[in-house]
Amino acid sequence: MNAVILAAGCSTRLYPLTSERPKCLLEVGGKTLLEHQLEALATCHLNEAIIVTGYLADHVSAKLVEIRQRYPLPLRLVHNPLYAETNNIYSLWMAREAVRKTDFLCLHADVLFHPQMLRKAATLEEAACLVVDRELLEETMKVRIEQDRIVAVGKHVREPEASGTFVGLAKFSGDGGRALFHEIEQLLGEGHKDAYFTAAVERLAVKGFPVAVCFTEGLPWIEIDVLEDLERARRDVHPTIERSLHQRRRVE
Q1: Element (H, E) at 77
Q2: What are the C-alpha distances in Å from 244 to residues 40, 109, 113?
Q3: Domain residue spans in the chain?
Q4: For 146, phi and psi rounded to 5 degrees?
Q5: Digits of tens for pLDDT over the chain (252 positions)?
Q6: Most buried of 32, 151, 172, 196 (most Cβ within 10 A)?
């Protein structure tokens, strides 16, 4: 199994903090968001992690030179040259060859999360699965669930019909990955380079392909879009994650 971290975006809503560094290199608790994600991935028994860069890609390359030895996980960089005019659907498409013959996890690079969330998703056998928080949060991608399957996902899902919030973590296995990239190819061919990859997931669901749910079950996480999110990540979410991990280590 591999992992793809989607880290190509410009993150203009966090300017000036992201005017000289990509969002994945913002620090929370003394480590970058990228380092937090790599630490979580290192516990999932992966073959390789692919980081899709775009905006300020050289900064990510330089950081990997600095931190590579800390993580027992092969790392590969893939560049999205059209990052300024595309969305993460195109970034995932750029990584298709790296995951074409394997199961893979897919991560939004701007999410700080409890590692157990990812480990749980990694063990699931479903062909397609999204990690979902039952709580409905503002300005996030929401999902609609029917009979334990996701039938709609995106910012177009209205709160009254929503069942939860998409965390920004997903897993695809076998037929799920192949079907996903088929839908991505179709969407790109129709000119939807500015879409989220969840548009392809929703097309799968509409066609009857089972998209499973992995609930967070109360584990802490946060998507960092604006300064207030970053402040909350540093003040509340990261300390909560660290306390939980410390308690787990004591029990073990």
Answers
A1: strand 75-79
A2: 14, 22, 12
A3: 2-251
A4: -135, 125
A5: 999 999 999 999 999 999 999 999 999 999 999 999 999 999 998 999 999 999 999 999 999 999 888 887 899 999 999 999 999 999 999 999 999 999 999 999 999 999 999 999 999 999 999 999 999 988 889 999 999 999 999 999 999 999 999 999 999 998 999 999 999 999 999 999 999 999 999 999 999 999 999 999 999 999 999 999 999 999 999 999 999 998 877 665
A6: 172
State the distance between the two ends of the chain, measured CA to CA, in whole angstroms. Answer: 26
Q: Whole-angstrom Cα distance, residue 137 to residue 209? A: 26
Closest of 226, 205, 221, 230 to residue 143, by C-alpha: 205
AA letter at 166:
F
- What are the two backbone dihedrals, phi and then psi, of residue 35, each rounded to the nearest 5 degrees? -65, -40
pTM of the model: 0.96
Q: What is the 3-state secondary structure (H, E, C) of 94-139?
A: HCHHHHCCCCEEEEECCEEECHHHHHHHHHCCCCEEEEEECCCCCC
Assess contact for 41 and 169: CB atoms under 8 A: no
Q: Are 47 and 74 in contact (CB under 8 A)?
A: yes
